Amino acid sequence: MAAAAWPLSSLADLLPASLSLTLFLASLVVVLVLGAAAVFFEHIRTIGCTHSLERTAVSAAFFEDPNSLNKVPCPSIYDPAEKYISLIIPSYNEEHRLPEALTETLNYLKQRSSAEKSFTYEVLIVDDGSTDQTSKVAFEFVRRHKIDNVRVLLLGRNHGKGEAVRKGMLHSRGELLLMLDADGATKVTDLEKLEAQVHALAKKDKSSPAPSASSSQRLSDVEIAVFGSRAHLEKQALATRKWYRNFLMKGFHLVVLLTAGPGIKDTQCGFKMFTRAAARKLFTNIRLKRWCFDVELVYLCKHLRIPMDEVCVNWTEIPGSKVRMTSILHMVFELLLIKVGYGLGIWKIYS
After folding, report:
1. Does 14 have pLDDT greater than 60?
2. What are the phi and psi torsion angles at 156 (to 5°)?
3. Can you list the positions of beta strands (E) in the chain?
4. Residue 274: how many CA atoms within 13 Å on its side-chain side?
5. Element counts in the chain: helices (H) and strands (E)
6. What spatial distance separates the first Cα and last Cα of the chain, rounded to whole Å?
7. Percent of the chain as helix, strand, coil, to the nearest 5
8. Helix 293-303 to helix 243-260 angle, to the nearest 10 degrees?
9. pLDDT attached to residue 331
10. Alpha helices, DSSP H only, in 261-322?
11. Are the CB atoms for 300 and 349 separated by under 8 Å?
C-alpha cells in the first residue's frame, strides 16, 4: 500500500510548484499584453496629438527657384485655386525612374496646354528625404520648365509616401489635384478618365435639388474624389504572381474591406484625383504617413460624405518597387490604427 501511495504523494508535492509556474507564466503574459496595449494606445494618442499640432501650425515651407535663386512662399490649400490642375509626385530615391516619367508627363501637359488655353498646370515633386540624386534631377526640370510650372518640395528626412502626398496636396494651387507615382506605372494620359468622371459627378451635384447645390459653383468648390483602379487587371496578376503573394494580398484586401468597408476595389493604386474642396477636407484630417494612407482616404471620404468613384486605368509594373513582403505587416498594423483610432474616437474627424 505504501508503495502504491508514493506516486500520489509525489504528485501532491509537485502540484504547488506546477501551479506557481503556471500562475507566473500567466501573469507574465497578462503583463506583456497590457504593456503592448498601453504602448499601442499611446502610439495612437501621439499620432492624434501630432496631427492636432500640424493642423494649427503655420507652414514656413518654401520652394527654391534654381534660376533666380529666390525663395517662393508655398501656397495653402485654403487659398483660391490659381491653376486648373496640380500633379503631386511623391518621390523617394527615384533618380533613375523619375526622369522618364517626368518627361512624358510634362510633354503631355505642354501639348494639352497649347491646345486648351484654360488648361493651366503645375507639377509638384515632393522629395521625401531621398539619399540619392532625386532632388538634383527634379531641380533640373524646374530649370527647364520654370518654377511656375514645376516645383520641388524638400521634406528633409524620410516620412513616408502618405506624408509626401499630404504635404504636396496642402501646398498645391490646382482646382483639381492628382497624385501619381514617380515610376510612371500609370500613363499620365489616363488623368483624362478621372477628370471626366470628376466633371460628371460635379454636373450631377449641380443638378441636385439640395440647398447647397448652385449652378454657379466652381469645380474647386465641389467635393469629389475619383480613384484610379487596377481591379480589372486582377486575373492577369493572380496568374503571374507566386501563390504566397496572392495569399497575402487576398488577406490584405480582406482586412481593408473590414477596415474601410466596401465601395473601392483597389485602394492602393497610386493614381487618385481630388477636387480642391475634397483635398482640403481629406488631407487636413489624414494621420497615416506611410503605406495605408490610401485606405484612410477611403474611410474619411465615407465619414465626410465626399462622393467617390473608381475608374479603370492602364497600369504597367515598373522594376524598382519599394514594397516588400514585410511591408504587408506594417500595412496591417496601420489598418489596425485606423480601426482603433477612429473607432474609439481617439482620432477626431474635422469637417
Report:
1. no
2. 85, -60
3. 62-64, 71-73, 83-91, 121-127, 150-154, 174-179, 225-229, 272-275, 308-312
4. 26
5. 10, 9
6. 82
7. 50, 15, 35
8. 30
9. 85
10. 276-283, 293-303
11. yes
Say how far residue 105 (Cα) sits from the centre of its chain: 21
Average pLDDT of the segment spanning 279-285: 96
The angle at the Cα of 184, spanning 181 to 185, to the nearest 5 degrees, equals 90
Q: pLDDT > 90: what percent of the chain? A: 56
User: Closest Cα partner for 167 from 83, 62, 84?
Assistant: 62
Nearest to 89 by CA among 161, 29, 175: 161
For residues 32-46, give the mean pLDDT: 83
- Mean pLDDT, to the nearest integer, of 132-142? 96
Going by the DSSP 8-state scheme, the letter that residue 116 receives in this structure is -
Cell numbers for 31: 503583463
Q: What percent of the chain has pLDDT over 70?
A: 83
Reference 136, options 168, 85, 96; nearest CA is: 96
Return d(Cα 256, Cα 258) in angstroms, integer: 5
**Using one digit for the tens of pLDDT, what is the confidence trace for 74-119?**
999 999 999 999 999 999 999 999 999 999 999 999 999 999 999 9
Calpha distance 104→71 (Å, rounded): 27
Separation CA 254–CA 75 (nearest Å): 39
Q: What is the pLDDT of residue 46?
A: 84
The pLDDT of residue 321 = 65
Return d(Cα 156, Cα 169) in angstroms, integer.
17
Cβ contact 191:198 at 8 Å: no
Pairing between β-strand 150-154 and β-strand 83-91 as defined by DSSP bridges: unpaired
Question: Rounded to whole angstroms, how far apart are CA atoms 226 and 54?
Answer: 26
User: What's CA 104's distance to the chain center, in Å?
Assistant: 23
Which residue has better confidence, 291 or 198?
198
87: amino acid identity, one letter:
L
For residue 301, pLDDT over 90 is answered with: yes
Tell me, rounded to whole angstroms, the distance of Cα 175 from its chain centroid.
20
Q: How far is the C-alpha of 72 from the C-alpha of 64, rounded, in Å?
A: 6
Residue with cell 474601410: 260
Q: What is the distance, to the nearest Å, from the Cα of residue 2 to the centroid of all Cα atoms in its chain?
A: 75
